[in-house]
Records
---
Amino acid sequence: MSTKPFDAIDINVPLVVDLDGTLSKTDTLHEGIVSILFKKPIKIIGLTKALFDGKTSFKRLVTETVTQNADSFCYRHNLIDYLKTEKRKGREIHLVTASNQKIADSINEYLGIFDGVKGSDNQLNLKGVNKLAWLKDRFPQGFIYAGDHKADIIIWNESKGVILVGNGNKFKKDIKSEIPCLAFEDAKMSIFKQWIKQLRLHQWAKNILIFIPIFLAHIANDANVIAKTILAFVAFGLIASATYIINDLADLEADRRHKTKRNRPLASGNISTFQGILGALILFLIGGIISINLSKGLTYCILIYVILTLCYSFKLKRVPMLDVSIIGALFTLRIIMGSVLNDLPLSPWLNSFSALLFFSLALAKRHVEILKSDQTITNKIGGRGYTHQDWPLTLAFGISSAICSILIMLLFLTQEAMVQINYSAPEWLLLEPVCVFLWVMRIWFLSHRKVLSDDPVIFAIKDKISICLGFIATAGFMIASYL
C-alpha cells in the first residue's frame, strides 16, 4: 500500500460512494424483491418475465412495483459520519450506484449529504466497467472511490484514493500499491452466533407442547413413543425456525425502526436477505424430510402450521384480534401434532383450553405494546392493526378468555379426569388450575404495568415465580398419577 497519507489527497478531488454493501450493509435490490414477495406476491410472475429483458429493466420494475423507504435501509453510520466530516472540509460527496435512480434519489433526499447522485437507468447498469467509464467521464480530474465488491477492483485501481468498506477489505491485495487506502471495517462478530440468534432456539421451548398428549395419555414410559416425539420436536423446531426467518424478512422495515428489534441479525444486516431466504429453504427441506418419514398426519399438521404462519406474516398480522387468534391456534396446533403423531384421539377439553389460554397470552403481549405506544399518535402500532385507544379491548378480551380457559380445565378435571382410573390420587390434579390461574394473573398484572417485555411463554422460562408454579403443577400431576 502507498505510504502517502490518505488525508493528503487534494480536497478538490470528489469522493464517490457506492450504495449496496457500502453505504448500506445490505443489497437494496434483494430487499426490494423480498418486499414484493410479501406485499405484492402476484407481481413476482411479472418480475420473472422481466429477468429476460436485462438487469436494468428488472431493477426498474422492482422500484416501480414497491416503494422502498430510504429511512429503513441498513446504513453504515460510521461511513456516513466520515462523509459528513469530509463534506464540512469542502470535499464534494457523490452517490453513484448500480441501484435504480429512484432509490438513489430517495436516499439523497433522506440523508441530504450528496452533491450529486447517479443510479442505473433503462440504458445503463452502473456496475464494474460501466461505472468506471461513467466516473472517468464525469470526473476527469480523478476521484476517491468507496466500495465493497470484487467488481469495484477496476474502479479502485483507477482512482486517486481507495476506501474499502465491509467485505471490501479482503480485496486490499488487488489494489495498486501506490494508491492511498482507507478501510472501514465492520465490528467483529461470529456468523455462527448470528445464525443461532436468528434461529431463535430459545423459542423451541414452545414446542414442548408436542409432548403434552403423551403424558396425559400415560404413554410417556414407552421408549418408542418418546424417541418418535423427540424427532418430531426437532423436525418441527427446524421448520418453526424457518418461519421465524420468513417473519423477520416480512418485518424488515418495521424492525429497523424498532428500538430493540433493529439488532436482530436480518434487520441489522449481519445476515443478508439472500442468506436468510436460503437458510429458510434448507431448514424447511430438512424438517420436512424428517416429518414425512415420521408420520403423514404430523406432516399435514406442520403444513397447516406453515400456511397459517405465512398468511400471518404476509397479511393477517395486521388484522387486530385475528392476529392473536392465529397465535392461539398455532400453539394449539402443537398439541394436536403430539396427538396425531402418536395416534391419540383429539381432546376437545385440552384443545379448547389451549386455544383460549394462548389467545389470552398473545393478547397480553399485544397489550404491553399498545400501552407503551405514544397515545398522541393515531397511526397503527409497529405494522400491527392496533392503536393506543384499543387497550381496554385487549385487557377485557385477554382476562376473560384466560378465566374461560381455567373454567374449561376445572370442568374437565371434575367431569372426566378425576373419575378415570388412570389417576391414583385425582384430588391432587386440582393444583393444576390453581397454578395456571396464579400464573396467568401474574402475566396480566405485569402486562398491564408494562413490565412484561418477552413473549409470555419465554418469560415463564426465565421467571422464578413461573418456574416455581410449573414445578408445583408438575408435582401435582405426578402425585395424582403415581401416588
---
Amino acid sequence: MALTLELASRSLLHHSSSLTIFAPTDSAFSRSGQPPLPLLQYHLLPHAFSFESLSSLPSGAKISTMLPGRFLTVTNDETRISLNNVTVDRPPLYDDGSLIIFGIQKFFNPFFESSNASGKRIVQPNLECRDSSIQSNPVEALAAALRNRGWSVMASFLDLQVLGFHKQPALTIFAPTDDSLMNRVGNFSDWMSIFRRHVVPCKLWWSDLANFPGGTEIKTYLKGFSINVNRSSGVLTLNDMSVIFPDMFYSEGIVVHGIGGILEIQNETEGEVEESSSMRNGGSPESGFEVNDEDKAVAHYNFSVFRS
C-alpha cells in the first residue's frame, strides 16, 4: 500500500487537508493484484477519523469516501470495529492528527450491502475538503438509470472504471444481470476483462442488432474478443446469450441493452485474450480503452463487423 500511495499520490491525495487511509496488507495485494484507482479511493476518507470516532458510530451508518457517491458501511459489534464487515486494526499504523492510517487484512468490497443499513444516517464530515470540480457526467446518469432498473452490479462496474465516457463518441453496453455477475465480483483483477468484453465502440440500437444477419461478429473493447450475432428459430442471441431488456438506456452517445448473463470467453483462455494497458494511436489513458486506427473511424451506424 505504501508503494501504491507513492505512485498514485498526485491523483489520490490532493483533495483534502486531512485524511484517513485504510491500508490492506501486502498479502491482500498478493492475493488480489493491483487494484484500479477508484477502488483505492474507496479506501480513503476525506477526514481524519480516530479509532474512537469509528467506534462511536452506530452499525449501519455510512461514511463518505474519496470515491464520489460511494460509502463505507459501519458494521461494528461488541467484539470489533469494522467497515463492510472488514475488521479495522487497532492501534492505527500512523496518526499525526490530520493523517490517520489503519491496517486492514483485506480490501473493502465496494459491492457490500448491509441488510440493516436501510434508514441509517449517512456520515459526511468535512465536505468542503471534497473536490468541488467534480460535476455530474454521463457515467453518473447511466449508472443511476441502471440501478433504477435493477442492474446495480453493472452500475457499480461503471462507477469503478476510469472510463472518460465524455471522450468516447459512441458506445453500446451489454449489461449482464446482477445474478450472473455477483459470483464474479470477488476478484477485481477480472473486472476490466469482464467490463471491456461487454462494451462496443459504436452505438447500436436494438433495431440495428435485429437487422444483422446470423454470423455477424462485433468487435468489443477487449482486444481479440468479439460478440457473435446468431439466430435460432428466429430468436436473436449474442454469444448464445439472450437480450432481455433491449434499449434499456440511451442518450446522445450511449445505448445499453440488458442481457441474461455474462458474455464468456469461449475456445480460448483469459490469457489468450490480450488486455494491453498501453494506449495506441490516440487512445485516452483515462478511458482504459484501446483505440486503433480502425476504431477511430467508428461512429453511429458506421462500425466494423466481420461476417462469416
---
Amino acid sequence: MKTRSIFLTFFLIFPSLIFAQKSESWVLTSGEARALLPNSVVLDTRSRSVFYREHIDGSRSVSWEEFSVPNLPLRGNLLPPETLKKKFESYGIDSNRPVLVVSESKNNWGEDGRIVWMLRSLGHRSAFLVDGGYSGLKQLGAPVSNQGAPKNSGKFQIKADPNLIATSSEIKSNLKNRRYVFLDTREEREFLGETPYGESRGGHIPGAKHLYYKNLLNQDGSLLSSEEISTKLGELGIGRDSIIVTYCTGGVRSAWMTAVLRNEGYNAKNYAGSMWEWSSGNDKDYPLTAK
C-alpha cells in the first residue's frame, strides 16, 4: 500500500511525465485515473437521472447522441467538426487537458468508448476510457457530489485523424482485401439477421468476424487482461498486422471496441455510420449476408 501511495503521489505531481509514457494508451485503470483527476475534465456517460443523484465532483453529463446526426439512416455519424468544436468547448473540453470518460460498463452500450473515440478521432490525444468506471473512482476516494455541473469552457483544436475513422467507401473498396478485418461487435442475433434497432436490412458485412463487445469484459464489468483479449482475437484469426474496421448499429459499441483494441496495440478504426448507414444502401453496392 505504501508503494501504491508513492506511485499515486508521483502521478499527481508529474502528470506530464505520465502522458509522455502513456501517449498511446486509450484506457486507464481506476488508480491511474484517480491520480490524474485534479487536472482533468471528467465526462460521465451514465443516464442523466443517475448522474444527478451522484457523480464525480466537477464532472459533466454527456450522451453520444448530442454529438451525432439526429436522424436515420445517418444517425451514427458525427456532427460537422465546427459544431462539435463549439459543443466540446462548452463542456470545458480543452486540447491541453486530459479527459477521463466514465460509465458503468456492465449496464451501458459502450458510450464511454464512443466519446473517447470521438475525441481521439478529432485530435485529442489525452482522452481516456476509465476501466472500472464511476464506481472504480468512487471506491478510490474520488470526491462525489449531487450539485450541478460547472460552467467552465475550454479551447479545442480540431485535428481529424483519418487512421481512426472508417467510411463506407473504404469498406466497399476493401471487401476482398485480406489485410482488412471487418469486426461486427453486435449481439449474435443481430449478426445473424435480426433488425431490432431500425436497420433497413439485416445480416452482416460479407466475411465479417463476430465478437460481441461485452465478451471483452469480466463479470464485474472490468476489462479482460491483455493476454485474454489477444487470445480472443487470435481465435478469430486477427493479428496485429490486420487493419480492423469495427462496426455495430450506429458506431457506439464498435467505438468502444476500437478504443480497447487501440489500447492493446491493434490497428483498429471505427465505422461510425455502421449498420444504420450501410443497410440503407442497395444490395449490390452495400452487400449483407446472414451466412
